[in-house]
Q: What sequence folds into this?
């Protein structure tokens, strides 16, 4: 049994609030130069619900949901993105294909299907240290049958996300710029 003093509980509670609060704030911009790559899209544009969705908007919104620098020092990028946008349909609530954070269930949803290539880059210094070519520090995996949706949030902006199975990752590619 672990016993915590009251002061430790207070510190742990404050730490939990701080960690939980990270998910609420704005995403932090990430500089891709560390990997020799373009910057990932980590900050979503505020596209109002009255704006008609097109493939450029959906691409930007999916990228900001999916691209990231991980805790294990990998850079994940979405490249070669293609998408088909379905007609507006009613929100299905809990029966939706994916979780739609902050969704306004009274608003329509657009189903998505498409494909992209995951590009996963490692720090060039780490690649060189392990005997690899630091100029070819990325791997690629095609996601050929992705599905997802775009929905309106309770704040009146569009949000989009997609997911799908990825093929085996092939290594030895230069980073996208």
A:
């Amino acid at each position: 049994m672990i016993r915590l003093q009251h002061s430790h509980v207070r510190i742990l509670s404050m730490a939990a609030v701080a960690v939980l609060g990270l998910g609420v704030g704005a995403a932090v911009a990430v500089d891709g130069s560390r990997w020799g790559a373009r910057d990932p899209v980590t900050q979503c544009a505020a596209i109002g619900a009255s704006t008609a969705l097109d493939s450029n908007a959906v691409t930007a919104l999916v990228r900001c949901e999916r691209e990231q620098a991980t805790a294990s020092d990998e850079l994940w990028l979405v490249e070669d993105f293609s998408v088909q946008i379905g007609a507006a349909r009613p929100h299905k609530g809990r029966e939706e294909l994916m979780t739609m954070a902050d969704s306004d269930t009274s608003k329509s949803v657009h189903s998505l299907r498409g494909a992209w290539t995951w590009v996963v880059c490692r720090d060039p210094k780490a690649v060189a240290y392990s005997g690899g070519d630091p100029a070819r520090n990325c791997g690629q995996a095609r996601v050929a049958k992705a599905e997802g949706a775009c929905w309106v949030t309770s704040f009146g902006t569009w949000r989009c996300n997609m997911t799908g199975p990825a093929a085996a990752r092939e290594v030895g590619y230069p980073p996208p710029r």
About this structure: Strands lie at 68-69, 74-89, 109-122, 138-152, 158-163, 170-173.
